[in-house]
């Protein structure tokens, strides 16, 4: 009768998460993970090809979910352009608060991504999110122009720095060890601070 691997797999996953959170990916030890999971090191390879795959398995579901949320918010922005034209002004989609809530629903995973991912494909995750946000925002501004909004001319280098700072600000809650309550308050503060600033910067009334 084949052995049930589910229990040992769960032990490995928990041991790996604990190891990565404490030591980070680069300094994590497969020997310690195996010892904490109560199996031989060779037994790890029945579940994961290597340390990279182990780390990826811990964070990828949260990453995929975050991109899904981002895509939803992006769609709302573009679908509401017509409403903005009718009302004569632009409003945000409360994206910072929604993003922060998601991040804190998956806090361990985002601690791994933001603070413990050096040496993995996720080590530039925040920068990658900022780059995506920059590309989407530029497309959004072009759509606003086509709908009749007058968008002020701007320096692309300055724009890059502003978007990067905006994106990094969200994830600072994780790296600074905010509680969920603190993070959500901070998210509302960011929303109150940045929404009028973005409108003014874009030249929107």
Quick recap:
With 205 residues, this protein is an all-alpha fold. The protein is 76% helix and 0% strand.
Number of domain units? 2
Total number of helices: 10
Q: Give the strand tally.
A: 0
Would you tell me the structural class of the helices and strands? Answer: mainly alpha
Strand content: under 5%
Mean pLDDT: 90
Return residue spans where pLDDT drops below 50 for at least 5 consecutive residues: 85-89
**Rg (C-alpha, Å):** 21 Å
Largest sheet: none
Which series of helices and strands comes N to C?
Answer: HHHHHHHHHH
**Coarse shape:** elongated
Helicity, in percent?
over 70%
What is the terminal-to-terminal distance? Answer: 71 Å
List the helices and strands and how they pair.
Layout: H1 6-27, H2 30-37, H3 41-44, H4 51-79, H5 81-87, H6 95-105, H7 107-115, H8 125-146, H9 156-175, H10 180-202
Keywords, separated by commas or semicolons:
76% helix; 205 residues; 2 domains; mainly alpha; Arc Repressor Mutant, subunit A
Description:
- The protein is mainly alpha-helical.
- It contains ten helices and no strands.
- It has two domains: 1-48, Arc Repressor Mutant, subunit A (Orthogonal Bundle), CATH 1.10.10.60; 59-202.
- Helix 1 (6-27) packs across helix 4 (51-79), helix 6 crosses helix 7 (107-115) and helix 6 runs antiparallel to helix 10 (180-202).
């Amino acid at each position: 009768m084949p052995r049930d691997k589910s229990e040992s797999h769960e032990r490995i996953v928990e041991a790996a998460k604990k190891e990565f959170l404490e030591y980070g990916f680069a300094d994590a030890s497969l020997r310690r993970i195996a010892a904490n999971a109560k199996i031989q090191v060779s037994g790890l390879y029945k579940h994961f090809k290597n340390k990279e795959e182990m780390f990826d398995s811990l964070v990828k579901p949260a990453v995929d979910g975050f991109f899904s949320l981002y895509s939803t918010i992006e769609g709302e922005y573009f679908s509401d352009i017509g409403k903005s034209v009718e009302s004569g002004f632009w409003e945000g989609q409360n994206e910072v608060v929604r993003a922060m809530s998601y991040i804190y629903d998956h806090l361990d995973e985002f601690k791994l991504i933001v603070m413990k991912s050096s040496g993995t494909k996720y080590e530039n995750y925040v920068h990658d999110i900022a780059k995506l946000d920059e590309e989407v925002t530029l497309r959004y501004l072009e759509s606003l122009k086509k709908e009749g909004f007058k968008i002020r001319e701007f320096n692309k280098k300055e724009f890059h720095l502003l978007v990067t700072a905006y994106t990094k600000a969200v994830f600072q809650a994780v790296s600074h060890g905010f509680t969920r309550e603190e993070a959500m308050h901070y998210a509302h503060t960011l929303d109150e601070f940045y929404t009028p600033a973005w409108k003014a910067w874009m030249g929107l009334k």
